[in-house]
Amino acid sequence: MLNFNLHTTTEIVFGKDIEEQIGPRLKELGVHRILVHFGGSSARTTGLLDRVEKSLFAAGLAFVELGGVSPNPKVSLVRKGIALAEREGIDFVLAVGGGSVIDSAKAIAMGVATKTDPWQFASTGTKPDTTLPVGTVLTLAASGSESSNSCVLTNEETKEKRGITSETNRPLISFLDPENTYTVSKFQTGCGIVDIMMHTLERYLTPEGGESDITDRIAEGLLIAVRDAGRRAIANPRDYEARASLMWAGSVSHNDYTGCGRKRLFPVHKLEHELSAFRDEIAHGAGLSVLFPAWALYEMKNDFPRFAQLANRVFGVEMDFHHPERTAREGILTMKRFFEEIGMPTHLTQLGIKPENYAQLAANTVRTVKGPVKSYSALDEQAIIEIYKLAE
Ligand code: NZQ
Ligand code: ZN
């Protein structure tokens, strides 16, 4: 197990009917003027936005609204949000939505506090050292942004999607009511299941970390719970316990708890962000469900025992000690079948990506990360193209 420093600072308020606590709790936290930030339409049509604003109003808190965040949130709306927040003297940004709304809120908060355009951080890899406090009312179990230290933005002019990782990005408080996810479509539920699993798998399948048995067992438990709850939530979107498991797993999976003592590299995410940047219609979870099995088949040769352990403990594949490569491969194929069972794509063609796009996508990826993508092996352009071929 490697040395680690875990500091997950977000207060979590979890359960049914917690919206009425939002106003009073924010008041206790010393908040005065709030920017309520949301997405396209779901927060309003479900009535959640009304309930949140009612709670703020009842607590005597002033707020202004900014809606319109699209999936793969755009830096142009972030800039509008910064200007609005400065004009209105905002001291707190409250995101009501999924990962895209939360990341947009994080970027507005950092832009106001640092007086720097957030794309400056994204494009140079520098970290903001301060922010306005951010709160979230989560509506989709997926990204883990409600307690993570990252913020992912898209620049629609340059067609680039980049992350900003900084401890200042962790929200101050997140309100997690599983009932707010009942209306999430089957497809977005599937995307969320994949993303939650990937945040733990990207910490589990890494070259450094030794035995780390406690971390492995926590990770494996989470993966099993998400697999089972995922099946139930897809079959019955109003299954409270299943939605609750997914919601809590989403936060735990990306607040660093499932990766203690292991090196964090996130190669599949780096490959995926390039797909979503290339075609804005590609949902993050859908890109991951296509790329993960291909990446795993390409990389398993570098650590057959670890891929075999995953296959055996999480997917019940019988361990072949003489041929761990067989167990490893069967585990990856079982996981691919699971993604298909929950309605997720597993082929690049399903995302509208064709062989003639491979060279450009691979070149974009290497340019974005400024060199080969760190993984078990260093993934250069040729290796990335090989992975695309395995995902055809
Ligand atoms: O815009 P609305 O109308 O709200 O519709 C959204 C959107 O179309 C809809 N939705 C959300 N909650 C709903 C709902 N529909 C019905 N009922 C509800 N309760 O779902 C669609 C997708 O929303 P989005 O926020 O884009 O999804 P997600 O939460 O998966 O976030 C994806 C973004 O997060 C980034 C991804 O790259 C992507 O940009 N990530 C952020 C991370 C972080 N900050 O830590 C880590 C992740 O790895 C990820 O990269
Ligand atoms: Zn993700």
Automatic annotation (TrEMBL):
Task: List UniProt keywords, sorted A-Z.
Answer: Oxidoreductase
The Alcohol dehydrogenase iron-type/glycerol dehydrogenase GldA domain extends over 10-178
Q: Which domain of life is it from?
A: Bacteria
Q: Where does the Fe-containing alcohol dehydrogenase-like C-terminal domain start and stop, copy by copy?
A: 193-389
Task: Name the InterPro entries for this protein.
Answer: ADH_Fe/GldA, ADH_Fe_C, BDH-like
Is-annotated flag, keyword Oxidoreductase? yes
Q: Which Pfam families match?
A: ADH_Fe_C, Fe-ADH
Q: Could you confirm whether the keyword Ligase appears in this record?
A: no
Name of the protein: NADH-dependent alcohol dehydrogenase
According to its UniProt entry, this protein's organism is Butyricicoccus faecihominis
Could you read off the lineage of the organism from its UniProt record? Bacteria, Bacillati, Bacillota, Clostridia, Eubacteriales
Q: Which gene encodes it?
A: bdh
